[in-house]
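Re: the multi-chain job from yesterday

Posting the exact lines I submitted so nobody has to dig through the queue logs.
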Amino acid sequence: MALESDQWESLAAESDEEDLADDRKHNQLLDAISALDGKKKNSLSQRTVINSGKISEFQFSSVADAVTKVKLHELVGSLKETTEHGTLKQQLSVIQKHKQTVSTPLPKHEKAKISRTTAYEATTHDLSKWEPTVKENRKAEQLQFPLHKQDFSVVTTDQLVQRFQPRTPLEMAVAALLHGSENVVQDNSKELTLAEQRALAAMDIQKAKERRMELMKHRALLSYKELKAKRQKKIKSKRFHRILKKEKLKDEKRLLETLQKEDPESFLEKITQWEKDRVQERMSLRHRGGTKFAKRQMIYAKFDEKARQEVQDMLQKSREITQKLAATESSDEESDSGDLEPQQAGGSAFVDSRNPWMSRPNVLIKLKQGIGHLEENNAENVGHSLIVDDVMDNKNDDKGMSIIGGNTSTDLQHQKNDDSDDDSDNAIDGIFDKLKESKEPETEVKTNRKQIRLKQVRKRKKSHKSDEKLAAEAVVKTSESGKSEEGMVDSDDSLCEEPSKKRSLEDMDALINEALGQSTNEPAPKKKQRKRHKTKHFQSGNHQQSKPKADTNIDPKKLFTVDVNLRQSSSKPDVVVNEEDDDQLVNIAEAFASDDVIEEFAAEKSDAVRSGQPQDICLALPGWGDWGGAGLSISKRKKKRFTIKAPVVQRKDQFLGHVIINEKKNDALKKHQVETIPFPYCNTDQFEKSIRAPIGRTWNPAGVFKQLVKPKVVTHLGKIITPMDQSAISKHETGDAEGKTESEETESKQSNRKTGKSRMKTNKKHKGQGKYSKK
Amino acid sequence: MKVKVLSRNPDNYLRETKRDIHKVPRNYDPTLHPFEAPREYIRALNATKLERVFAKPFIGSLDGHRDGVNCLAKHPHQLSTLVSGSYDGEVKVWDLTRRECISSIQAHDGFVQGLCAVPDGSSFLTCGTDKTVKQWSINEEGRINPEPVVTLLGKTVFQQIDHSLGHNSFATCGEQVDIWEVDRAEPVRSFTWGVDTVHAIKFNPIETHILAGCAVDRSILLYDMRGSAPLRKVILKLKSNALAWNPMEAFIFTVANEDYNLYTFDMRKLSMPLNIHKDHISAVLDVDYSPTGKEFVSGSFDKTLRIFPYDKGHSREVYHTKRMQRVSVVKWSLDNKYLLSGSMEMNIRVWKARASEKLGI
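And the result, structure tokens for all chains:
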């Protein structure tokens, strides 16, 4: 080998230098000498490459040789002279600035490791999408296998119709009628019927086009109409339908008028129809004014004199019937309330028989007339007020009339207080105007009303005063400022009253006073004075009545009687929260000052240590080896000799100050320990709940028992349970973006799976067939 | 004088029909029922005892193989059809309802190492020590066409075979794990990691591109069919013999180990097994999940089958007979009612999954 290489070298090197040759010869000589002593030296084959200093593609160039290294500037030096390649120059400069060797590529096994890690992470992440499904199935009270995939899609009528197959002869006949004709659109996708198509085919093209357009337009209009009707039918607004009805009536009216002039025949037809309606109405026993029939009757009244009369008759009839009803209801009241209106009758039905004021319908009627233009609700209010009155004070029986008046007035007051209802205010103004104009009997009512009103005011004042007194007492007890009672009350008033309201009420009072100034029995100015004196109180009282909430909010007792001690003690923890831990520790120490926990624990531990330590056993027998007799004692020496020393046991908690480790396993405890706990276990309550009540049939109703012992898993004999499907996830996925992408993925996978399967099937089939055909 | 009369609503005590149960009025007030806990305990005890009394799990055995049964495969669509392969290279198709062999073929020279059904139910695949994979078509009645549809030649011995549920590909294991497609002569993909043989392979039934294998170097290997490299390896103290995926929980699988235990793993957290199932007293040779995923059955060298709840450390049931030898393969039927076990003494046995269940057999 060595020789070969030498030869090669000699061939390769063109310039033969003498010293080199000498060297070689010298080496050869050395080799020959060393070979003389029998041992064949294993000469290493060497290969040296001669560098000529030139860069050539036929020669190796050693990297170590700095001279032969190719420099960048040598290669791109010519670039400096040119003006072109600007970007290239820039890039080169950047490269030269940041001279960084490219890191060596990772070894193969490292690369594999990284790829494995990433692939594993991706897979686990992908698998985690099953987590919710799995959890749910584990927690489920009962699982039915195979897992049902419920179909929640709603079946539309169209689908039902498509599914329908005519079977009975009747259905067949109907189907033949519906679909047999050529003038019916058979297929929804087609625009024209068969007959129409044929007709169009028969025409020339221009005409056909026109005709077709016409037909299409007609269809479209029809469908629009249909849609509109559908939409209108869905509208729930009563007002809309009322307007619609009115419009219809109007249209009918117009139609009738035109028909009368132009088409008497159809007009006659209409009339007969109307006659029929009337008969039906009479049969129905409804006889009310607001019915459809009655409204139409109004229209026809124009053409028939009788019609109006008929409506009147009908109404009369209705009145009779309803009156009879009312009469039977109020028959035990022995009053002639027959001519009351139904509303009133309804009101009177509530009234207690003890109430004598119901036996004076005249007054009521008058009142009613007085507030005639008020709405019906107000009339009802009267009724209500009557009831209330009846409950409240029966002692004023002899002044019943005045009470009624008074009540109406209070009622009106309430309305007045109600700021929002402006209409009722106006109505009340109207009443007052009327009251002014009214004659003697009414004034009587008014005076009575006035009286009762004043009485009420006084009463309220009294009650209010007592309240105030109580409050004031409380204030005096607690407050140091020593405010007077009046002052307190004033402030109280100013707190709750509204100036505008006060004014309006005062105005009303004044109005009443003016109106009744002469007719009152009591001296008016005195009253006025008193009134003025205490309007404020009255106001506040009234206000209290109308707004009880405000009253409860401002309870002076609650405001001023605060226990000082309590406040101090309660303020402390708030402070503590903000302070540092040291303070808290101190507080805890203070709180548990009486019981020394640490000391107790130390005692407990020493006890445990003592009980855990084995005791020395003394085997010395008294009297053994000694003289017997009374006062026998064992000598110390003997004791020492016969005592077996117990070994010192090292405890685990020896160097742990704050724990006691019990190293003895207590087998008695094991019996009472819990073996199983309910599966998704969260807290002890859950476990306790599970063992609290018995589950047997004896202690539970049948249904509960069944529920308690129902099996966790139900499978059916002969039904194959397939592994979990990808579709099981989809129900757990939420609508967020991530979920969506996941679902998409699963879908695509599913589709892949399906296609795979189908492909496989075809393959199998194909091959199987091939095989069998061979056979 | 007032006479109080007892009046009852007949609805409360009368049956509506003759077939109806008798209505028993009860007062459920707990104060009237002392000793409810002891009574209930006695009842539960009696029920348990009765369950043991009525436990008759063994249904029958399928006799016919002339060597130990090495592998079993369930038909994916027919509950009554079972395919078995034995150490003498014979494959038999059984009708479970009649308990008889429908057809048998000499599939391989040497062992039938692996057996699996193709998910469409039209054929099944076998692999053997003769370095071949064969696909056999099977008709509705369970007759096998004696000529294989496809025969694939491998370079090395195949240890086991399993078909993916969702893809048209199957995997074999041996010196390396190969992914095949039936219409190709060469494996689509091969996985190697180290030099040790993989002797068990199973596809995940839910995420059908994931598969796991057990290798002789005591490791469990995870692969993704779509990737080029294996995913991860877990090394246990002793070799795992078989592996089964939970069919309801995509990331859970259980391995049957030589150290008498079974280990349930979560594929996402392989550092620790979720559960260690102990009870066998010898190496566990095979494991199969129930289709509900709530239990699994294991067959062992100690001549027993055991049924474990998937989340419990101990078995709820142990099946054995006097004549049954080492159980080499176990399967849980697809309707969750039966177990099938193949053992070394050439028999296939059919068991009830619930020993005391009344099945009308």
